[in-house]
């Protein structure tokens, strides 16, 4: 039976897609569900800086990240900041899709007013509890407020919790404090739900995969080339903090799970994987090869090599991603440009609050 559609519905999405996270991926997942073929337009660094402040990632990094999201069929580089009908027509798209948050130009103009007027605009629900602004806010002060609160997890460090994205008083529904609530439904929506075929070569990798970035992406692409079914083991927040220190991870376990699942190279995720790769894990998933990047491996708390077992089984491979990007380097970018990013965050919320007040005013007047 053929899955070919005679007249496929082509969907257009656009945006900055800075620090691509599971909120972006979920928006694209919903957009793809409204049609058959998803085209994603991405703005240049120049356009983003002009309208909302400097992006964290370069346009080339952002292009690569979006191309790797499994619901994306095509990426258009340098898309206009204000979505217009000419762009939709040029790429044969039936309509444009965006989340239910507010996006405006530097002059406060709705970036989707043209396609809305032409009835070629559809809206999907934004993923609550996550935004680029919030993630930047976490890194600016590196608070532990984003950690999942469990009996053996971390407590909030209140002295530096007033940055945008961590401030309980932040009133904007889009740039306020992160309160992502994970559900099994959300994981199912992101998961392929497939099992490896008997003939598949199973590859296993493990790590934090914190602030999912191009370094992770290039590593997973290379690791995937060693087999047919790639499983990613994600360590718990306490384990990541144990070997990375400071206030890592920036993203909690549930957030990291969704970010990794959105990657087209990943087949399955082990939530809360053991730090040391055990013989039970190797047997349970029928692992053929375990891959690790060229970054140094820290010993387990018992002083033993966490990859001792796959090495003894001759199933361990060092993979060179040929990309030196790390989560620490991203944090360094934020800290070095702290004033710029703080100004960007507060400016963004101020715009959103002004629009919300205007909407409330119009609503009251129409009553």
What is the structure about, briefly put?
By secondary structure, the chain is an alpha/beta fold. The chain has helices at residues 22-33, 45-51, 59-67, 85-90, 113-117, 132-141, 184-190, 214-224, 237-244, 253-261, 279-284, 308-312, 327-336, 338-366; strands at residues 10-15, 37-42, 74-77, 95-99, 121-124, 202-207, 229-234, 268-271, 289-292, 316-318.
What does this structure look like?
Pathway: Lipid metabolism; Phospholipid metabolism; phosphatidylethanolamine biosynthesis; phosphatidylethanolamine from ethanolamine: step 2/3. It is an enzyme of class 2 (transferase). One of its GO terms (biological process) is phosphatidylethanolamine biosynthetic process. It is a single chain. Helices cover 37% and strands 13% of the residues. The protein is α/β, with parallel strands linked by helices and 367 residues long. The protein folds into 3 domains: 10-124, HUPs (Rossmann fold), CATH 3.40.50.620; 184-318, HUPs (Rossmann fold); 338-366. The strands form 2 sheets. A 5-stranded parallel sheet has the order 3-2-1-4-5. Helix 6 (132-141) crosses helix 14. It starts with 9 loop residues before the first strand and ends with a helix. Mean pLDDT is 84; it is low at 148-178.
Keywords:
367 residues; alpha/beta; Rossmann fold; five-stranded parallel β-sheet; 10 strands; 13% strand; globular
Q: In angstroms, what is the radius of gyration?
A: 21 Å
**Poorly predicted parts:** 148-178
CATH homologous superfamily heading of the largest domain: HUPs
Counting structural domains, the number is 3
How does CATH name the architecture of the largest domain? 3-Layer(aba) Sandwich
Number of DSSP helical runs: 14
Spatial sequence of strands, sheet with the most strands: 3-2-1-4-5
Proportion of helical residues:
25-40%
Structural class label: alpha/beta
The overall pLDDT, averaged over residues, is 84
Please identify the top-level CATH class of the largest domain.
Alpha Beta
What is the percentage of strand-forming residues?
5-15%
Family: Belongs to the cytidylyltransferase family.
Enzyme class: transferase
Keywords: Lipid biosynthesis, Lipid metabolism, Nucleotidyltransferase, Phospholipid biosynthesis, Phospholipid metabolism, Transferase
GO molecular function, one term: ethanolamine-phosphate cytidylyltransferase activity
């Amino acid at each position: 039976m053929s899955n070919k559609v005679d007249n496929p519905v082509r969907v257009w999405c656009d945006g900055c897609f800075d620090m691509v996270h599971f909120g972006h991926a979920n928006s694209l997942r919903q957009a793809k569900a409204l049609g058959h073929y998803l085209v994603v337009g991405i703005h240049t660094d120049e356009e983003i800086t002009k309208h909302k402040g400097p992006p964290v990632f370069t346009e080339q990094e952002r292009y690569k990240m979006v191309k790797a999201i499994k619901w994306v069929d095509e990426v258009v580089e340098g898309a206009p900041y204000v979505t217009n009908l000419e762009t939709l027509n040029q790429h044969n798209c039936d309509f444009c899709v965006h989340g239910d948050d507010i996006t405006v130009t530097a002059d406060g103009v709705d970036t989707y007013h043209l396609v809305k007027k032409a009835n070629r605009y559809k809206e999907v629900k934004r993923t609550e509890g996550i935004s680029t602004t919030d993630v930047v806010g976490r890194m600016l002060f590196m608070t532990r407020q984003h950690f999942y609160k469990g009996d053996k997890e971390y407590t909030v460090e209140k002295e530096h919790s007033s940055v945008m994205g961590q401030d309980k008083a932040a009133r904007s529904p889009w740039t306020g404090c992160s309160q992502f609530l994970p559900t099994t439904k959300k994981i199912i929506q992101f998961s392929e739900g497939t099992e490896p075929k008997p003939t598949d070569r199973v590859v296993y990798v493990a790590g934090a995969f914190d602030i999912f970035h191009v370094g992770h992406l290039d590593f997973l692409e290379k690791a995937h080339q060693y087999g047919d079914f790639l499983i990613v083991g994600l360590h718990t927040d306490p384990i990541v903090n144990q070997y990375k220190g400071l206030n890592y991870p920036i993203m909690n376990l549930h957030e990291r799970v969704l970010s990794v699942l959105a990657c087209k190279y990943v087949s399955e995720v082990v939530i809360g994987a053991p730090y040391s790769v055990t013989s039970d894990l190797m047997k349970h998933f029928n692992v053929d090869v375990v891959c690790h990047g060229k970054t140094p491996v820290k010993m387990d708390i018992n002083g033993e090599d966490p990859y001792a077992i796959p090495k003894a089984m001759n199933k361990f491979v060092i993979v060179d991603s040929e990309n030196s990007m790390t989560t620490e380097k991203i944090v360094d970018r934020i800290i070095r440009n702290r004033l710029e990013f703080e100004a960007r965050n507060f400016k963004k919320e101020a715009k959103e609050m002004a629009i919300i007040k205007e909407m409330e005013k119009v609503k009251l007047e129409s009553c």
